[in-house]
Amino acid sequence: MPRIFDNIEQHFHPALCSALDSAYRADFCVGYFNLRGWDKVEAQISQFVGGDGACCRLLIGMNKLPQEELYESRSLLSSKSGIDNRQVIQLKKRIVQEFRQQLAIGIPSDREEVALRKLSAQIRAKKLVVKLFLKHSLHAKLYLVHRQDAHSPIVGFLGSSNLTFSGLSYQGELNVDVLDHDACEKLQRWFDDRWNELWCFDISEDLADLIDSSWAREQQPPPYHIYLKIAYHLSQEARAGLSEYRIPRDIDIQLFEFQK
Fold it and tell me: Which member of 25, 124, 150, 177 has the lowest number of beta carbons within 10 Å of its beta carbon?
């Protein structure tokens, strides 16, 4: 019988970490990924060598945007022409913007800063690869852990937990472990089919660049640059007024070109 993890009687996070402790690679599919939530599994993923066959592959099935326009049609393939590169770039930018808004929520802590830097470093080292699935809405929550174990090479977890602090630790969830070899192989094929899907796009570098340009960056900006940014934002209304201002016609005709 499978174990049930509801974060009440049995918590999901310790079981996942225990499986990852002896893993050499892993495949995660979640509906939502919180950048700060990576702290819950960062230590286990850091032991991976990195690269093909030795990393964590994270597939984000449906990362909601504030406007919730991205998936209203339920499929990007609703039109016969599908999507083009321009649309892909726009969609990726909007997804990254949603991740940027995640970093703007709450008061930053030292622990979160360290965790985000490690997340960026693991992406750069190819220990973590993140893809966005855009073919259709995908809410699956699947965790596959690969181990050097002849009797149980793959351990699966299937249920409702997203890759977030609450989903892994304390929010009411319902997950089960999957130890049957045939079932794990079928789940692996399911994951691979979606990972290799045409409408599945790599956003790893976008996330690393986002973190490296945020408050969690390794090298902090000099005070003068902070001053310039504050001045820029405080003068926003004045700059907007200047761009909209038009010289009255009766005055305009009296001015030389260099005075306008």
Answer: 150
> Hey, where are the domains in the chain?
4-220
Hey, what's the torsion of the CAs at 221, 222, 228, 231, to 10 degrees?
90
Q: Which of 57-66, 104-113, 250-259 has the lowest mean pLDDT?
A: 57-66
The pTM assigned to this predicted structure is: 0.80
Mean pLDDT estimate for the chain: 87
